[in-house]
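Before the break, one more example. Copy the sequence into your notebook; we will annotate it together after we see the structure.
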Amino acid sequence: MVGTRQRVSAVVVDYDAGPVLALCVESLLAEGCDVLVVENGSAEDARRLLAGHGLAVPVLSTGANLGYGAGANRGVAATSGEFVLLANADLQVHRGAVNALVGALDDEPSWAVVGPRLLDAAGHIYPSVRRFPSMVDAAGHALISLVQPDNPFSNRYRPPEAGGSSRGPADWVSGACFLVRRSAMEELGGFDEAYFMFAEELDLCWRAHQAGWGVGVEPAAVVTHLEGVSRRRHPYKMLLAHHRSALRFAGRSTEGWRRLALPLAGLVLGLRLVVALAVEAARRPS
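Here is what the structure looks like once it is written out:
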């Protein structure tokens, strides 16, 4: 097998995540990847941080906070590996994870994307392998999940066991970390940059399926995700982006008579946003 460095370009999209960025880059270098940091925040701070940890990797400045998908697209365009590992800055890749993901795409030539098993900071499996929700499940998840996360609608869309128990196909996988075939990424035109944050990976996987590609999960690849390090600094902006992205995907993926329900979807998401903003405000110190 050709070495990982010749086959995998790792693109880390950062927005002033701080010290966790160095841990992420260190774990990727240990896997033999070529690493590029795409910085949506202060490129100078990122370079200084990495240099302080003895990590000599290039940092590409976007000049503004373009969002995850737009930053990732610029990273893909600036690299040349056969495969691209797309990663948030707030994660650490376990030993052997990248080779396991490469092996999955080698074994499954119809797959465009493969995701790892994601763990949270406590070592619990994060439900990173998800289904495209029906309209009923999408509405039920939107309305109930904030106050009752363990509900039938959410469990069908994001089942609790969805960390992937064995290699297999998936509807879509979390964009926190996944390996994508460059040829497929180029065919699909990359991420839709109209998504500032959230749902860009859902949209990409949906378009991959529409184009005849598959998406899968390889649980032998393990990644720990310290979720939300950057976005906790701007919770209200992120909540707005989340709900706008959900509405955009509903508009893109809904066809036929179901499009008549899109105004209702907008109303449901609007109600959810109001509740989510209220919940966030209640959590914050007065």
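The CA atoms of residues 231 and 238 lie 6 Å apart. The mean pLDDT is 87. Try to locate both features in your own notes.
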